[in-house]
Automatic annotation (TrEMBL):
Keywords: Signal
Protein name: ABC transporter substrate-binding protein
Xref: InterPro entries: Peptide/Ni-bd (IPR030678), SBP_5 (IPR039424), SBP_5_CS (IPR023765), SBP_5_dom (IPR000914)
Solute-binding protein family domain: residues covered: 94-478
Membrane-related topology note: Lipid-anchor
Family: Belongs to the bacterial solute-binding protein 5 family.
Keyword Ligase recorded: no
Phylogenetic classification of the source organism: Bacteria, Bacillati, Actinomycetota, Actinomycetes, Micrococcales
Major site of localization recorded for this protein: membrane
Localization terms from the record: Cell membrane
Signal peptide residues on this chain, from the entry's feature table: 1-20
Organism: Promicromonospora aerolata
Amino acid sequence: MKLHRITTAFLAAATTLALAACGGGGTPDDSAAGGGGGFSAEPAEGGTVHVLQNADFSYLDPARGFDGGVNNFYRLVYRQLTTSAPGSAEDPNEIVPDLAADLGEVSDDGLTWTYRLKDGLKFDTGDPITSAEVKFGISRAWDPEVGIGSPYLKQVIDAPEDYAGPYRSGDLPTIETPDDSTIVFHLKEPFPEFDAVLAQVNATPFPEGTGQGDEFIHEIIASGPYQLAEYVPGSTIKLERNEHWDPATDEVRAAKPDAWEFTIGLDPATIDERLIAGQGADVNAIAGTVQPATLPRLQTPQLQERVLELPGICTTYMGLNTTKKHMDDVRVRQAISYAIDRTAIVNASGGNQLGAPSTTILPPSVAGHQDFDLYPSADGTGDVEAAQELLDEAGLSDGFTMTLDIRSQESMQAQGEAVQQALKRVGITVELNLIDTATYYETIGTPSQQNDAAITGWCPDWASSAATFIPPLFDGRNIYEKGNSNLAQLDDPDINARIDEIKAMTDIDAANVQWGELDEQILELAPVVPLMVAKTVSLPGENVTGLHSSANAATGGIDYVGVGLKDPEKG
């Protein structure tokens, strides 16, 4: 959801980083940057990388978690048949083999994809990873309780209509395992980007029969270079080396540190103070975007060379629940779209250094983006007159009251308050419903718990295609009881039909043009209100290196698989 990718997920959880040096410090590939050692210098072997963050991860179970705060963490402990290239690669957006020896072999009709596993793959238990474990892990995505994460497996792979995962329905016949190293997938319809679907975190293998109920809430079975050493919810996560991981089978994960330690529950201002001071183990620490109040302090010469900045790749938006009273009227939704003050939203989020106003669903970084603004206003402050006219037409001249779901974070509450002030101008009273960050996406992704609107975000699951934005957010046939990403609960026959037409196109570049046009067609219905594209500004410890950006794996932040320390003995 990454709101898997959800832009404000990594702001709130404070787990991702930025990438281009600001203040004249150079670029991340400039060896002169980052205190002379280079942001991207090769890490040494050993040491512990520390991550300071405010909120806990949503889930350790990759079938459940699907947000920008946890997907990068999964990359340290889990593997899939395919994955995103490391951030240090020539093309970090490329999908490459991981557990598979090569990318998939596709049949002439595009409906069958075959993969063969590498030799020597093992879980942290020492047990082998075979095609049966890959199939089992993937089939967990259909479980109505566990499989609330990434939606693509269920959307693309064929399955019996009543299939409800391995715990309830047993074997999934549309995934075949003719031998221990071969796995064959049968799709609903051709999908040329299927390699990218299998790179999603819920395509992680697990031993057959494991992971039912809450088994993976506090314990995991690792397939990556690190295994769970300790987990204290809301406090600490410690990772140690997985001795059964064979680096000869893994061309993606450098895994230079001996360990990782995540400290959770810190006040965001405290995180900033610790990184500015850079004392003790904090020289080996990374965190997410600094607080807006901290930005002016980063301009000092002592800190400028450590500042990392990256333009955003994710859209922050407000979903309007079209099943709710008043929100089921397109005129009301359009009125809200006119009344929103995007300038105030950006200012509430920290100003132009941390965000830019957005009037489209597709951000500029995603293929298919087209510039348009269906609800323009002077300086982006909102057109109150146009909004009031639409409310008058809808018989709501005196306004109404609505409930807005937001994360219980200071910056997110500031966004909610900016929405309150903007809509108050047309008589709409907005009541804020604060939800804990760790459970936010599950809550708003459960239609029975959803209120009138919610502020969230969406990032590309693979940046080369707008297919990772439009269908998950607006296909009415993919509204689930849990793990729902269509927060507007939009089920429009014309939109659904257009999605089918574009998905059937085999020319991905041509399809992206059509996705951009569909973006505009959807926003004419105003099921969501694009607000901003968030940017990141971060201050890693002076001893941290191997900092490379990844749009796919880290929602535009630093890909953890390359991170390490310049001097493992330091700190």
